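Technical annex, item 7. During the second reporting period the consortium partners agreed on a shared format for inverse folding records so that results from different sites could be compared directly. Each record opens with the tokenized structure and is followed by the designed sequence. A conforming record, contributed by the partner at site C, is shown below for reference.
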């Protein structure tokens, strides 16, 4: 264990020695994020890349940003969540597990996670973006979290990325129970819609119900105002409506 730690530290020193282009402020930011995330990078250039917003290199379009890491991290994050939820909900079907995963993978949740990790304080952006509070934008924070997951995966492998994600989130079961106690999807959707337009009404239209009485499947359409926004399927009308509401919430919060 001790020899492994020493070997890792030596490997990191070799990488840092070749990165004299970093300022003292950059190293301070690196240390801050490593402390927040609980992960020590072997290759600090990966961490630096994860913290580089596309706007930072507008004058040098060939210079890399965190977009590729974001693409990778999104997939790694999904795999980590799927694996963990599969383990803790052995009786969960595909639809149930997908909805649980969607809660943790949604932009608003990842943005909150980004704030808790302090990413808003160290993300590298253009002066204009910083002036316009771009570092606090939900999409910026969501992308930064996914980029960070991708960077950890490349630096240490899947197990390190898995450990960090679960550590950041905490007990997934408890988080989901807390969320369900606070507000069900239909209630949350109602709040979101009313905040945007108090005149718009939400309706759930049954499109079909098929199958024998003991094994029916319901399909409903969720309509906001005059627009059909999402559809949901379930073993009961209530389950179908809740699924449609969850989909609508993701659509409205990502737009």
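Designed sequence (site C submission):
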């Amino acid at each position: 264990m001790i020899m492994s730690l020493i070997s890792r530290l030596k490997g990191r020193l070799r990488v840092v020695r070749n990165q004299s282009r970093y300022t003292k402020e950059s190293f301070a930011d690196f240390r801050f994020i490593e402390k927040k995330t609980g992960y020590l990078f072997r290759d600090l250039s990966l961490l630096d890349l994860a913290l580089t917003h596309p706007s930072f290199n507008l004058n040098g379009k060939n210079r890399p940003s965190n977009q590729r890491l974001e693409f990778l991290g999104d997939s790694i994050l999904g795999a980590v969540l799927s694996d963990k939820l599969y383990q803790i909900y052995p009786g969960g079907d595909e639809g149930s597990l997908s909805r649980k995963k969607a809660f943790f993978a949604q932009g608003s949740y990842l943005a909150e996670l980004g704030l808790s990790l302090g990413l808003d304080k160290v993300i590298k952006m253009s002066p204009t973006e910083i002036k316009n509070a771009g570092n606090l934008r939900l999409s910026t924070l969501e992308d930064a979290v996914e980029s960070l997951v991708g960077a950890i995966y490349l630096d240490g492998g899947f197990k390190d990325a898995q450990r960090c994600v679960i550590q950041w989130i905490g007990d997934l079961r408890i988080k989901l129970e807390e969320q369900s106690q606070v507000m069900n999807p239909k209630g949350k959707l109602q709040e979101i819609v009313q905040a945007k337009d108090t005149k718009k009404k939400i309706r759930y239209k049954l499109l079909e119900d098929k199958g024998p009485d003991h094994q029916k499947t319901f399909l409903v359409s969720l309509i906001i105002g005059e627009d059909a926004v999402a559809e949901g399927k379930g073993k009961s009308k209530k389950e179908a409506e809740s699924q449609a509401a969850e989909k609508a919430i993701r659509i409205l919060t990502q737009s």
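The mean pLDDT is 87. The domain at 185-254 is CATH 3.30.160.20 (Double Stranded RNA Binding Domain). All partners now use this format for quarterly exchanges.
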